[in-house]
């Protein structure tokens, strides 16, 4: 059996460490492991591969992979892998939602706390050497408690479920929005479908976007939908930038139709230096860093090793993607 890694990315943490390939060779002596650091040579490498670990793929590369039976994405998002040829094939696709979900959820909760306690304002005033107690209290959006606040959580996958548990534990009222509301959730008081999204948004003190990027969710939060939020509400996106119209969000913040927002993801990344978002007050920006953790590749290795055992035993794989739905 042959496994090919091809994860090319300028950010060092996303690149597959050499020790991952070497440990796989030791744990699975019959497994041929090829580690590529770029797409150069991929078509030759995958010609006899059974397994490909990657986060994107082109049609000609997939066509060259004549024996391929399984593709694993090192990301939770799989839209860059689900080209029509892959979707129409019998190749199984898995993702790393169980690797990233708990970590991204922690980041989302950190943003909720930061906005509620106005930590970004205090930090800005710190740089000006100002004791900001009066500024924090006299601003239109004062520091607030989270216990008793209502969180509308858009998406109840691995990220959303972990956010829901954490929010419920501190006394927030959680309303979940998911494609199949009948599935419910233990930590969510109420679950509605996307067709009921507009009815619950006016109830929100906080909205967190944690849904996958699909044809249904692209552009989900436009100016009209943002306008349904009350002026004291906060909007947070830790999903994908294309779920949200950032221009409409910036307008809402400038016109004080929202108390604040936090974005970890953007339509264009890295966020260009000339983007007007940098200058928007009440917008907290993090550089798509929600999934960063020193334990990333240990967690990735554990998932991949478990699935290799399952794959050899013809058992269902952890994190299998519904290719038709896109997640």
Question: How would you sum up this structure, described in words?
Answer:
The chain is of the alpha/beta class. It folds into 2 domains: 2-98 and 293-312, NAD(P)-binding Rossmann-like Domain (Rossmann fold), CATH 3.40.50; 100-285, 3-Layer(aba) Sandwich (Rossmann fold). 32% of the residues lie in helices and 15% in strands. It is built from 12 helices and 12 strands. It has helices at 18-27, 42-45, 59-64, 84-87, 97-116, 119-127, 133-138, 158-169, 197-200, 223-226, 246-254, 296-312, and strands at residues 2-6, 32-36, 51-54, 70-72, 92-94, 150-154, 173-177, 190-192, 206-209, 234-237, 260-263, 283-285. It has a 7-stranded parallel beta sheet with strand order 8-7-6-9-10-11-12, with helices on both faces. It has a 5-stranded parallel beta sheet with strand order 2-1-3-4-5, with helices on one face. Helix 4 links the parallel strand 4 and strand 5 (92-94). Helix 5 crosses helix 8 (158-169). The radius of gyration is 21 Å and the shape is elongated. It starts with a strand and ends in a 15-residue tail after the last helix. The mean pLDDT is 97.
